[in-house]
């Protein structure tokens, strides 16, 4: 199949035809003939010496995660497919954009699919990329332009409240990255005011085709609207200038350690055969794009059903990391049943001090005592570590589950109603004692220095235990928060917002 079809794609729904001046849209698909590329040859050499369905590498460092993306772009020869919930006009966003433009100049086809929840109403940077002959940008389930987003959301709530939360990054249909990171500085430990702890998995082999097939399904779905639909809303002088502005912005920050340290060494090691990939079987799990059209409120999705089956199989130990954790009563009952059958259940989430969504914390807080009473171990991330620069706040963003140190899931899925029923989600499930055991051990080893352990006092009151090296402290209010933040969060807990978290 060619890089682009010559047929007009799926007819776009009337709701989009009302809001946008829609250009003709062509369907396109993954390219299969990439075995002779640099990445294709490296993949073939690795599999010549390894018997497994996939080769996998954990990207737990933000620097490595961004460097891997840039390194893959720079070695692309045929195609680049990027699916993201968010891309920001910051150092990371501009760095990726400029490398994508350079790849397109070499003749690489670039497809960039963005959700519209946090995309600027008129994004000159994305429009400028879209004007390149080898780059196409599409926006998933877009809000109407030239109208308040709030008004649009209220008028079309069942549609616009459902978002594409998937994150994938695939080059030459040979190497893919799946996980929780968007394209913005906070996901890559840039040294800014907020830094996210996050996880990705780099994969070769069978998962790559599955990710590419999923990308194609989203890309060709009726909800994927070409960025060129917004061309008439913006001054084209501004669009033309945006690439030059991006380069000037990066040049101005060229001496910063963050920009200076981002390179493609990790991918260079992969191409040279030096990267220590884990050989294992892996399965890509992803919701279908029609989840955003499905108005049956409590219907389980592909991803949620898979995770429930996977976690239900725990026999000894379950570790769940979910930055936004709203288990509801059914979740409390589910984890309690695991504890009763002898499973050690450890859940790690954000504290009120570390979260970037206090409204989610307000709802999550309802379930802390019930979970503790059932024997679940609860940990909450501390917002600051001694090794961090002054003024920087740490936030948990990883979405990980390990089962019996044998299986691990890494993806975009939070344990909350939004991921369960509203947003599309995805991830990769790996059957590997080596990888799952390594991740479980590193998580548990880090908890005393990075998180508070929650406990109930003899009188049933919540306590936060700080057990860092040389410190043993019991705290009786939400740690490192102001009275005003606690008061506002308490007020939010009284609102009927749980189904939207």
Describe the structure.
With 501 residues, the protein is α+β, with helices and mostly antiparallel strands. The chain has two domains: 14-271, Endonuclease, Chain A; 296-500, 2-Layer Sandwich (Endonuclease, Chain A). It has 18 helices and 20 strands. The protein has an 18-stranded mixed β-sheet, sandwiched between helices. A two-stranded parallel ribbon has the order 7-14. A hairpin with a 3-residue loop joins strand 5 and strand 6. Helix 3 packs parallel to helix 4 and helix 3 (62-75) packs across helix 11. Mean pLDDT is 89; it is low at 1-10.
Beta-strand percentage range:
15-25%
Apparent shape: globular
The CATH first-level class of the largest domain comes to Alpha Beta
CATH H-tier superfamily of the largest domain: Endonuclease Chain A
Straight-line N-to-C gap: 41 Å
Radius of gyration: 23 Å
Characterize the quaternary organization of these chains.
Answer: single chain
């Amino acid at each position: 199949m060619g890089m682009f079809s010559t047929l007009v794609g799926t007819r776009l729904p009337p709701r989009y035809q009302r809001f946008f001046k829609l250009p003709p849209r062509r369907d396109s698909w993954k390219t299969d003939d990439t075995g002779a590329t640099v990445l294709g040859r490296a993949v073939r050499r690795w599999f010549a010496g390894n018997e497994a369905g996939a080769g996998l590498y954990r990207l737990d460092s933000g620097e490595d995660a961004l460097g891997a993306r840039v390194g893959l772009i720079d070695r692309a020869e045929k195609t680049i497919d990027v699916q993201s919930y968010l891309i920001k006009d910051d150092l990371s966003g501009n760095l990726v954009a400029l490398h994508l433009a350079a790849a397109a100049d070499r003749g690489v086809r670039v497809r960039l699919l963005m959700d519209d929840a946090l995309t600027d109403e008129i994004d000159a940077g994305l429009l400028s990329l879209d004007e390149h002959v080898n780059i196409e940008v599409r926006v998933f389930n877009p809000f109407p332009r030239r109208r308040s987003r709030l008004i649009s959301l209220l008028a079309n709530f069942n549609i616009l409240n459902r978002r594409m939360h998937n994150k994938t990054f695939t080059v030459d249909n040979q190497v893919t990255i799946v996980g929780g990171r968007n394209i913005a500085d906070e996901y890559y430990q840039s040294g800014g005011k907020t830094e996210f702890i996050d996880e990705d998995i780099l994969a070769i082999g069978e998962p790559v085709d599955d990710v590419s097939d999923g990308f194609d399904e989203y890309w060709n779905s009726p909800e994927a609207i070409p960025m060129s639909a917004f061309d008439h809303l913006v001054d084209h002088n501004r669009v033309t200038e945006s690439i030059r502005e991006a380069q000037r912005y990066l040049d101005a920050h060229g001496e910063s350690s963050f920009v200076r340290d981002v390179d493609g060494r990790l991918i260079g090691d992969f191409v040279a055969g030096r990267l220590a990939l884990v050989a294992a079987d892996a399965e890509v799990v992803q919701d279908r794009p029609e989840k955003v059209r499905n108005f049956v409120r409590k219907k389980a999705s592909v991803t949620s059903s898979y995770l429930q089956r996977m976690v239900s199989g725990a026999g000894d130990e379950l570790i769940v990391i979910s930055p936004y954790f709203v288990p509801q009563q059914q979740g409390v009952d589910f984890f309690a049943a695991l504890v009763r059958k002898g499973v050690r259940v450890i859940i790690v989430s954000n504290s009120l001090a570390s979260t970037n969504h206090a409204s989610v914390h307000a709802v999550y807080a309802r379930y802390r005592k019930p979970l503790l009473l059932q024997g679940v171990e609860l940990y909450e991330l501390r917002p600051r570590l001694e090794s961090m620069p002054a003024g920087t706040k740490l936030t948990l963003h990883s979405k990980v589950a390990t089962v019996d140190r044998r299986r691990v899931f890494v993806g975009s899925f939070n344990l909350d109603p939004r991921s369960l029923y509203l947003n599309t989600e995805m991830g990769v499930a790996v059957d590997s004692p080596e990888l799952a055991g390594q991740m479980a051990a590193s998580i548990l080893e880090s908890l005393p220095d990075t998180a508070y352990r929650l406990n109930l006092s003899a009188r049933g009151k919540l306590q936060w235990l700080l057990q860092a090296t040389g410190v043993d402290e019991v705290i009786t209010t939400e740690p490192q928060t102001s009275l005003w933040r606690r008061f506002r969060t308490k007020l939010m807990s009284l609102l009927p917002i749980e189904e939207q978290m």
